[in-house]
Specification:
The chain has 128 residues and is of the alpha+beta class. The protein has one domain: Orthogonal Bundle (Arc Repressor Mutant, subunit A). The protein is 42% helix and 22% strand. It is built from five helices and five strands; from the N terminus they run ααααβββββα. It has a three-stranded antiparallel sheet with strand order 2-1-5. The chain has a two-stranded antiparallel sheet with strand order 3-4. A hairpin with a 4-residue loop joins strand 3 and strand 4. Helix 3 crosses helix 4. The longest helix has 16 residues. It is elongated and about 50 Å long. The N and C termini lie close together (7 Å). The relative contact order is 0.19.
């Protein structure tokens, strides 16, 4: 059984419980496949939701402590993950040099994507 945090969210939003169950099943499958990040756009496609609905559900789980919101920074040219940070303020601290392109990027060369990752407690619960 998943954490009390998850069960608490389902009790708080009973009409969303079926969607949250489907989302957690998706997160479990992604985690078992070795995916570190849950991307709202991909979750939306898998669950037949729009991007905004998937984001709101993921964000609810984040607020409950089941997931953690992160910001992935990619090189646009190579579509390579350069860094992951926990807050928008940390985006300013990312070094501009890209080992994939072997050059310094300016902001227009980078892409930021909001993603979610299971917390340590959630990972333990998902594995159970």
């Amino acid at each position: 059984m998943l954490s009390q945090k998850f069960e608490s969210i389902k009790r708080q939003y009973p009409r969303l419980a079926p969607l949250l169950d489907r989302l957690v099943a998706y997160i479990q499958a992604q985690t078992e496949d070795g995916q570190e990040y849950i991307i709202p756009k991909l979750a939306a496609v898998a669950l037949h939701l729009n991007d905004g609905e998937a984001f709101v559900l993921l964000d609810l789980l984040s607020e409950a402590g089941v997931l953690r919101r992160v910001y992935n920074v990619y090189c646009r040219k190579e579509n390579a993950l350069l860094a992951t940070v926990d807050s928008p303020d940390e985006l300013d601290e990312i070094p501009p040099h890209c080992d994939f392109c072997d050059r310094d990027h300016d902001l227009s060369d980078l892409k930021v994507e909001i993603a979610f990752t299971p917390t340590t407690d959630a990972l333990r619960d998902l594995a159970a």
